[in-house]
Amino acid sequence: RIRAVLITLVFLFCAALVSYGPDLRLLLAHRLGAWGPEGGEATLTTNAKADAQLWEEIDRDFQRGLLLMHAGDSQGAAVLFAAALKRDPGLVEVRVNLGYCLLDLDAWHEALLQFVTAIQLKPEQANAYYGAALVYYALGDIEGALGNMRTFVHLAGEGDPFQARAMAQIGAWEGELRILRADEASELTAFSEEPP
Fold first, then answer.
1. For the chain, what is the mean pLDDT?
2. Residue 120 backbone dihedrals phi, psi, to 5 degrees
3. Please, are residues 130 and 152 in contact by the beta-carbon 8 Å criterion?
4. Count of Cβ atoms closer than 10 Å to residue 162 Cβ
5. Does the pLDDT at position 191 exceed 60?
6. Which of 50, 89, 115, 187 fits 131 for a cystine, CB–CB 3.0-4.6 Å?
């Protein structure tokens, strides 16, 4: 009977390895009772108890950060999200939330760094593109803002609650870009018509 159980466990492990591939570390972290945000990278060492404690600390900081963020304390939330990222810099959802806190604090370049890093770690992380679009617009890069917001719309899909807001923002930014381009064209025409 023990042999049958062992064979079944080996079979299940092989099936998990084939099914999950590189995400097996995250699966194992969840099975050990550890926590990792959706899409995040789990950090496992040889000591499962230490890993569980690490994930408890990360989860605590992440959950407290979310509470502070939703309560309007972006500074306090940013401190907690940064603490979680010190423990594991591959946590995409934590990084995106830190980006939104920094955006709220008008720390544009720092926020952009968080969103771009999140996109590099997980290119399908739609809300990172939304945040990056807002930062690019704040920095005066309307084309960068449009590109990122269009990517958000593409990735998020119709059921996303921010879809309508994103579409309205795209329309507004396209209007601004048309006006800017028309102004630039008229300035070039006026400059070229001036006598030398």
1. 81
2. -65, -40
3. yes
4. 14
5. no
6. 115
